[in-house]
């Protein structure tokens, strides 16, 4: 305690797989403050912008407070009996494979364990798959092919000790910011070099020694060239060749691949190979640019082949490193969350494994074959095979490829159960039975991060309304279906102990997953559990695998997997000439149901956008700030144009975060067809053939409002602000009566209206008030609107007249003299943003404020401001993460 109220509680961040430790202090009225845990081995006190803003996302806004059945609030008793009855009836009538769960790498290990036990051991089907199929499946499959087990060999300390870090398909600076900070710290301390392999120039390139902007999908060709060069230059580790099988075949195939497929120059390729081969301590980090591909598993093995060949694996400062995306992607793999696995890294189709799990669970009904993987699972929902579906902690109607089709399938499923924090998601809106889950900060359990460190999440707030923990909901359904004994859990520690004990099965089959030392953990030990990396076996005290040449295939040896370049399935055509790449923004988490509640996080990149290269912009006759329509073979979308050389000609990039709730026409997965990797079943989310053209809007609009609104225009995108919401809009149809339209959109039929109109210019402005306070204001024009958006977002403090002028005399006090005239962004606004958001590049300013993104003439001025104002920040935060406030 530091004397300011309730004591601090140690927990783990809600978001990414870095698994940072946080210290939480509840304020006693439902909120909390957050700081990094200085003693946590993952982050040593650092946090990124998302972790720091956790306190802004725990409010009651949008929370689901009671179970709902067919749209009506009801009791838990009713809702859970109905779930149990409908699942039992489906199984009785159509067999176990007529039911399915679709779950999430964000569940706690305890939740995940119970879901998996219920489906695989008791309902008797393996139809439980998870959003990890869209995320880690190729890494899992690649690891198993090479190592005989799905195990990440290295630890975070390897990043501190490496001399070269290669980022393949990983925008670490934005997606694993605290790990990126560790790499930057190593660069400062020991000169660690950084190479980024990504078709797109990302924030992770800012400090890179080399950026290889390869052709999308050509990673295998590049790593095959590296393998051939390792062989040619005699850098093969003889010791490791003895401990492996298949080297010659892998090299032969590698030599046949044409490095030109990468689109890189021979110089670029050779400098990369020289650097990699010449640096003993090399860590190759890979993420979704590798996994989310129709050749994802082969890409993984192409990378693993190079580390195996040189023996650079499982030793300090070196190894291949698959970073996990979600906070418990790793834990989910441990408890067998995927449709093709059993708990504890055991295999469904291995008779001995299957029988051992059956005996351990005393399970009546084990499936003998693998279940449906995500894409096939939703196809089975579509075809009517699945009669009852339960979606937990994920939003597939927005994040599965071919999202429109998935949405329709879920809608037509005879019974859909959804467990979520909120009813406001694209998936929750389709639920027949909607169950209120307790969220991060309200429930207890464990998560495993990217380097196998098990950490505790601890409850510091009471679940609101009737919300309950996911494990608790699942266990009660198990009991109501008749399996009283097997699901008699009353606390998460009972589940954790059972799982820890179960890892003795893995040990007995010679597998690596071993946390048996936790089998007898008492309640207090669990409460006090400090971050622990598995295996907890004493002989592996440095926490690494495979440095000793011991692998987990039956002969104890590793496998080289011969692989060959296969381009992405989508080939640009006359109809769809561009390749659409997708990914993440720094400050938002997936479908924004939590991060989108933070005004601070929502200030960074507040609108869905598509990045297009300037050459293509000219060719297509587009201009800055246009809205553009993308079309693919399966769907379409509307995005704000950003002109940037970060994408190559012929490629475009759009982020994944917008949904029906925040920008219905900008859900990228509506465009992505469901092409999958043949081995892992992981979708190719990063290469879709699309067309790009200007949207011809009859009008453009900007609005601010106290409450969220869902206008019926072709395009709208809303973002949270301190005072409510701000919204960009556009429509193709001329609107005759703007006043009624505005009243309808904002749900303010009786508000007082103040209007300023200039019909000749097609400009219309309306402020709606309750007599005193402005509740909403809408600005419409025939042209894209230039307004002081930042200033208008302070609207509750302004009079209708001030608002409608779009700027006021006071505005120069708030915003300062205008620097960017295209978007009317003032000096003070820019300086504030540089300080508050720790901006380091002109693009950062553009991302947050749009300044400098149109004509670009203010960019030199912005650069000067940055030099002047970010220096003081840099000095203050040496060794601190980029986004940490000084
Ligand atoms: N801020 C933020 N952080 C997150 C998340 C979030 O939503 N927001 N989500 C978390 C989750 S679940 C995950 S899985 C991770 C994802 O973390 P990352 O994988 O780092 O993130 P992405 O932006 O999906 O994709 C990474 C990069 O792959 C590149 N890429 C596309 N095609 C190719 C290719 O063919 N080859 C190569 N080499 N690269 C390619 C893209 O241009 C992109 O820059 O992030 C986690 N962290
Ligand atoms: N095109 C394209 N598509 C992609 C990707 C991509 O890069 N490109 N990335 C893919 C990847 S890697 C991932 S991981 C997925 C992520 O996609 P999703 O998992 O679908 O996205 P989230 O927004 O994280 O959904 C989590 C849901 O759980 C709810 N929730 C939060 N806390 C709790 C809780 O404690 N209990 C319960 N029951 N619910 C809770 C949230 O409100 C939210 O609705 O997207 C995938 N889709
Ligand atoms: S890097 Fe950021 S989002 Fe990821 S766990 Fe740490 S604080 Fe949370
Ligand atoms: Mo992910």
Give the count of structural domains.
Answer: 5
Instruction: List the bound ligands.
Output: ligand MGD, iron/sulfur cluster, molybdenum atom
Strands side by side in the biggest sheet: 5-4-16-15-14-6-7
On the 0 to 100 scale, the average pLDDT is 93
Provide structural commentary:
There is one protein chain. The protein is α/β, with parallel strands linked by helices and 886 residues long. The chain has 5 domains: 68-134 and 328-540, 3-Layer(aba) Sandwich (Rossmann fold); 137-323, Dimethylsulfoxide Reductase, domain 2, CATH 3.40.228.10; 578-694, Barwin-like endoglucanases; 699-805, no CATH class; 818-883, BFD-like [2Fe-2S]-binding domain (Arc Repressor Mutant, subunit A, Orthogonal Bundle), CATH 1.10.10.1100. Helix content is 31%, strand content 18%. The strands form 8 sheets. The protein has a 7-stranded mixed sheet, sandwiched between helices. A 6-stranded mixed beta barrel has the order 21-25-22-24-23-26. Strand 2 (21-26) and strand 3 form a beta hairpin. Helix 28 packs parallel to helix 30. The radius of gyration is 27 Å and the shape is globular. The relative contact order is 0.12. Iron/sulfur cluster (SF4) is lined by residues 13, 15-16, 18-20, 43, 47-48, 50-51, 176-178.
């Amino acid at each position: 305690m530091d004397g300011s109220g309730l004591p601090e509680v140690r927990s783990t961040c809600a978001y990414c797989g870095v698994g940072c430790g946080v210290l939480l202090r509840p304020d006693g009225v439902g909120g909390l403050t957050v700081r990094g845990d200085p003693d946590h081995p993952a982050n040593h006190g650092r946090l990124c912008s998302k972790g720091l803003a956790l306190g802004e996302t725990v409010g009651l806004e949008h929370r689901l407070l009671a179970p709902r059945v067919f749209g009506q609030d009801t009791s838990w008793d009713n809702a859970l009996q109905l779930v149990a009855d409908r699942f039992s009836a489906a199984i009785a009538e159509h067999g176990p494979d007529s039911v399915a769960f679709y779950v999430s790498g964000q569940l706690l290990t305890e939740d995940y364990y119970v879901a998996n036990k219920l489906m695989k051991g008791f309902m008797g089907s393996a139809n439980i798959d998870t959003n990890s199929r869209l995320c880690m499946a190729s890494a899992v499959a690649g690891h198993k092919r090479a190592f005989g087990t799905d195990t990440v060999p290295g630890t975070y300390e390897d990043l501190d000790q490496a001399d070269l870090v290669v980022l393949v398909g990983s925008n670490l600076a934005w997606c694993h910011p605290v790990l990126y900070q560790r790499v930057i710290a190593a660069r400062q301390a020991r000169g660690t070099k950084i190479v980024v392999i990504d078709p797109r120039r990302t924030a992770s390139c800012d400090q890179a020694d080399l950026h290889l902007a390869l052709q999308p999908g050509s990673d295998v060709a590049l790593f095959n060239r590296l393998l051939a060069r390792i062989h040619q230059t005699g850098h093969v580790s003889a010791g490791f060749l003895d401990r492996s099988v298949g080297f010659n075949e892998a090299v032969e195939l590698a030599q046949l691949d044409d490095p030109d497929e990468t689109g890189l120059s021979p110089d670029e390729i050779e400098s990369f190979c020289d650097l990699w081969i010449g640096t003993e301590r090399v860590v190759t980090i890979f993420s979704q640019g590798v996994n989310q591909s129709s050749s994802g598993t082969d890409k993984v093995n192409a990378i693993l082949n190079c580390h195996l060949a040189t023996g650079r694996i499982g030793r300090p400062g070196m190894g291949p490193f698959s970073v996990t995306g979600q906070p418990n992607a790793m834990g989910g793999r441990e408890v067998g969350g995927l449709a093709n696995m059993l708990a504890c890294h055991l295999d469904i189709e291995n008779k001995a494994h299957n029988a051992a799990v059956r005996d351990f669970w005393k399970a009546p009904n084990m499936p003998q074959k693998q279940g449906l993987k995500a894409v096939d699972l939703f196809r089975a929902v579509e075809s009517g095979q699945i009669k009852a579906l339960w979606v937990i902690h994920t939003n597939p109607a927005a994040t599965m490829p071919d999202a429109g089709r998935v949405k329709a399938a879920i809608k037509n499923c005879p019974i859909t159960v959804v467990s979520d924090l909120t009813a406001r998601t694209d998936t929750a809106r389709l639920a027949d039975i909607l169950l209120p889950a307790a969220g991060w900060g309200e429930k207890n359990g464990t998560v495993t991060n990217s380097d196998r460190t098990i950490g505790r999440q601890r409850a510091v707030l009471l679940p609101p309304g009737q919300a309950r923990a996911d494990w608790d909901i699942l266990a009660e359904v198990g009991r109501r279906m008749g399996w009283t004994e097997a699901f008699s859990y009353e606390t998460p520690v009972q589940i954790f102990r059972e799982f820890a004990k179960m890892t003795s099965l893995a040990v007995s089959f010679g597998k690596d997953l071993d946390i048996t030392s936790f089998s007898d953990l008492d309640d207090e030990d669990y409460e006090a559990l400090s971050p622990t990396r598995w295996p907890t076996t004493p002989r592996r005290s440095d926490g690494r695998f495979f440095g000793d040449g011991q692998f987990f295939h039956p002969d104890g040896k590793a496998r080289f997997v011969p692989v060959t370049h296969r381009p992405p399935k989508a080939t640009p055509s006359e109809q769809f000439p561009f390749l659409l790449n997708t990914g993440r923004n720094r400050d938002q988490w997936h479908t924004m149901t939590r991060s989108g509640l933070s005004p601070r996080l929502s200030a960074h990149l507040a609108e869905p956008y598509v990045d297009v290269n300037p050459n293509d912009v000219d060719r297509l006759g587009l201009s800055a700030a246009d809205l553009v329509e993308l079309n693919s073979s399966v769907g379409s979308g509307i995005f704000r144009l950003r002109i940037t050389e970060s994408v190559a000609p012929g490629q475009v990039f759009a982020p994944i975060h917008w949904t029906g709730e925040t920008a219905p026409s900008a859900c990228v997965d509506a465009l992505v067809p469901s092409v999958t990797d043949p081995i892992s079943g992981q979708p190719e989310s990063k290469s879709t053939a699309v067309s790009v053209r200007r949207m011809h809007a009859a009008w453009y609009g900007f609005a601010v409002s106290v409450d969220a609104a869902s206008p019926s225009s072709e395009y709208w995108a809303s973002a949270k602000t301190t005072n409510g919401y701000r919204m960009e809009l556009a429509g193709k149809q001329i609107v005759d009566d703007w006043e009624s339209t505005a009243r309808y959109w904002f749900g303010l039929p009786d508000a007082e209206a103040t209007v300023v109109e200039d019909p000749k210019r097609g400009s219309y402005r309306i402020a709606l008030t309750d007599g005193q306070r402005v509740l909403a204001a809408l600005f419409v024009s025939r042209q894209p609107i230039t307004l002081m958006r930042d200033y208008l977002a302070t609207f509750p403090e302004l009079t209708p007249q001030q608002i409608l002028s779009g700027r006021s005399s006071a505005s120069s006090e708030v915003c300062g003299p205008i620097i960017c005239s295209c978007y009317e962004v003032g000096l003070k606004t820019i300086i504030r943003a540089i300080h508050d958001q720790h901006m380091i590049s002109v693009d950062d300013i553009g991302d947050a404020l749009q300044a400098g993104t149109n004509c670009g003439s203010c960019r030199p001025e912005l650069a000067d401001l940055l030099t002047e104002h970010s220096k003081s920040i840099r000095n203050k935060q040496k060794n601190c993460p980029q986004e940490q406030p000084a």
